[in-house]
Amino acid sequence: MSKFLLFGASLHGNFGGPSILYGAVELWKKYFDNLEIVYLDPKFNGSMPFPVKVIDINKYNFRELLFAALLYKTTKKISGSDKTQELLSHYLESDAVIDMMGIEFTDKLFFSKSLKMLFYPIISFIGVILGKKIIKNTASYGPMLLGFTKWNAKKYLSSWCDLVLCREKESKLELEKIRIKKMLSVIPDTGLAMPVDQSIAPRYLSTTRKTIGISVSHQMHRQLKKRGDQYLAALIEVCNQFSDEYSILLIPNEIDISDENDISFCEKIADRVNKKDSVKILDCSKMQAPQLKGIISNCHIMIASRYHSVVAALSSNVPTVVIGWHVKYMELLSLYGQEEFLLPEEKIDDQLFLLEKVQLLLRNKDKVKDALIEKNVEIIKKLDEGTEKIKEVINSVQIPRR
Q1: Which of 4, 46, 72, 312 is 20 to 30 A from 378, alpha carbon to alpha carbon?
Q2: Alpha-carbon distance 13 to 48, whole Å?
């Protein structure tokens, strides 16, 4: 029996974290018998079932846990409150502590990601104290120009992690630039292996017309706001151009309760399109990630600004035009040989360019679909290599950390 203790990407209010988790579980269960997984989640509310045991980390006092871990190291005795003893036992029973965050140490998301790393190292550090293997699941890194971002990455990844998996070659280069010399490997996003559940898809798809799915990003809109509402205008124009022939399904990924999320941005689009009865907003608030992937897998094509919607579409053999702001989008398309269908953020002002990309994809849909089917066989083999590396590290002798 094997046991992993996971943390990092939130499993609630976002499609990304659950995609990474479901895909990882699908991969790992092929290599680890009777695998038990405990996931420490910062937003757990019990409203959604997952294929692992999920624990709300807000119920634990990590200062007390840190003291209990230090005491255990010297006395081999479990101490502290019942909650502390419970979580400490999970640590002690685990073969590895695995960080599941999908993008880290990037200046572009400094406040939302880098500052979180002031807390997350505590979870890993307790594992270090207890002599556990620390693994950084595949993720994107950089750009790293800020001194704090570089220092944070080097301290965490180089000093504590036994294995660091990178989603892209560019991410690996970013880490090598700051002289991180730990075991680095390029492995695609584990969300590519997430299974598809098509059980509820018929409820949300048109029975009379083919569906174009549009995955929106309020974050991209916010990042490009200084240039005006060009991103919003571009998506409205796509809806207007194609809603006569196709049903348009707007797909939010980030649905945290706040004034600004993907749902509110979908509403801005839906309110401004010409043919409102042909444009629908998908209510995915109570969907499991494989169910959302099931809906995406039934779309005729996708136009996606959210990374894990791109992951879900391409791994389901759905031809996709990507509007991307980070190197991770280009490298993902490159993995599939689909680079020509990227619209970089600097071209978002050119609505005609986006429309031409969509029209090109529609004309070549069958050819693209065949290429995706062929590539997905290769990609699963590459993902399995990542699991083999994890198993290799877990089975290796622990090297003392400096």
Answers
A1: 4
A2: 11
Q: Do residues 311 and 279 touch, judged by C-beta distance below 8 A?
A: no
For residue 162, the enclosing domain spans: 3-191+380-395
201/88 Cα distance (integer angstroms): 41
The one-letter amino acid code at 378 reads E
Count the domains in the chain. 2
Q: Do residues 104 and 164 lie in contact, with contact meaning Cβ atoms separated by under 8 Å?
A: no
Q: Answer yes or no: is 207 within a domain.
A: yes
Q: Which DSSP letter does residue 400 get? A: P
Kindly state the tokens that stand for 352: 């005609």
Task: For residue 216, give the nearest of 276, 279, 138 by alpha carbon.
Answer: 279
263 and 389 both lie in a single domain: no
Q: Is 247 helix (H, G, I), strand (E, B) or coil?
A: strand
What is the value of pTM for the model shown? 0.94
For the residues of 127-152, what is the DSSP string, one character each? HHHTT-EEEEEEEEE----SHHHHHH
Query: CA–CA separation, 373 vs 378, rounded Å?
Result: 9
* Least reliable range by pLDDT among 117-126, 139-148, 331-340: 117-126
Which of 59-63, 115-119, 197-201, 312-316 has the least mean pLDDT? Answer: 115-119
Residue 186 forms beta bridges with which residues?
Answer: 166
Taking a C-beta distance cutoff of 8 angstroms, is the pair 177, 191 a contact?
Answer: no
pLDDT tens digits for range 353-388:
999 999 999 999 999 999 999 999 999 999 999 999
